[in-house]
Amino acid sequence: MSASAGIFVLLFLLGCGLALVRHPVFGVMTYVLLFYVSPADRWWGQGALEGMRWALAAALITAMSIAIHRPVRPAIPFAKQPLVWGFAAFTGWVAIQSFWALDQESHSDLLSYYLKYIVAMYLIYRSLDSETSIQRLLWAHVAGCTYLAWLAYTTHAGGRFDSFGGAGIGEANSGALTITTGILAAASLFLVGAKWSRVAVLGAMPLLVNAVVATISRSGFLAFGVAGLTYNLFAPKRYSKWVRVLSVVGLGLFLILTNPDYWERIRSLEHLGEQVEGVDTGSKRLVLIQAQFEMSRRFPQGCGSRCTDVLSTEYLDPRQLTHRPGEEPSRSSHNTFMTMLVDHGIPGAVAYALMTFWMLLALRQLRKVYMGEQGFMATMLPAVAGSLIAITIGDLFVQYPKLEVRFWLLTLVMTMSSMASVRRLETLTVKPEPENLGETRPIGGSAT
Known about the structure:
By secondary structure, this protein is mainly alpha-helical.
């Protein structure tokens, strides 16, 4: 066993041990870090560590910790959250589609992911019973993104970095989007953190921004920009000036780290999908969307996961297809809504629309609750809101039906909404002090 593998095993055992001894959030942190480290995708994860179900083990330890420590129950039970039963109903529909899915292997894989996400969301929701536990989860998220950024820094040899590894975040677009959410979380942790945490964020931030640049991702660029604007919009008044200053500094860092190759690809956005010879403007994606509408008319009930790939040869000119060595030419979906429409039919499109509506409504309500405050939750809200809006922007250009970070963030929104409901209830039940009828007090002064 290599030294890297030995360190990994020790850290894994430490996280599981802390979960059993102290609090289940340490199990959740271990699960999150495993998602990013992904030992199966690393050279040191082969051999003795190969085939181990690390994430499953972390989830089981977290469940045991919840049973042992019994963290404070949320005000809104998990099963009563609209997002939960909506997602569970949609997962049931995905299971029914197994009878006619065109790509049975991909569809079975998607169904297993969704079942796993329901369990993961429950474990996260039950483990986040305080501001401290939320802070620890976000630190694990930032640490994981920093690990991906370190991989980009140490292994990027020019061109487009496309080798992050991990489940669903290995390629450039999803890697850039995921690291963008880590940057936003790091920014909020910087605002509320102690000196050591601010030093850690300052050390990680150049690596994180550099990783986003290394992907040369157009969707990542747009998501990064809109996320920054959203962060400023949701920033609490106390930190609004700080956020503006840090935004300018962050923009300066971003410009320093970019290069001509990066801006050459980003400038292709100016063509808005028009066909320009010798320039990849994304025009093929517009042609694909038109074909996907035809597919959805043929299969209003959906044709199962990744069926755009299966049907693309019937609806697209061979020049529109992607040719990979050792594989049949095909074309994958490049829009999450169209993926939901084609793969899962009208129920899929409705499910995506309802999820987006719920997310926007929940963020709007949380902004009303925390906008005028100065505490931890008010400072974390811009990171959560900016991250979810960034993912929604990414949905326009890439298919993200299995992006796990989205479900973590949605669970965090549910947690914050549950905690906000407790605050509202406490405000309504505060009893006024009994009046002393024999004494009068002048406004702003004391009785004499």
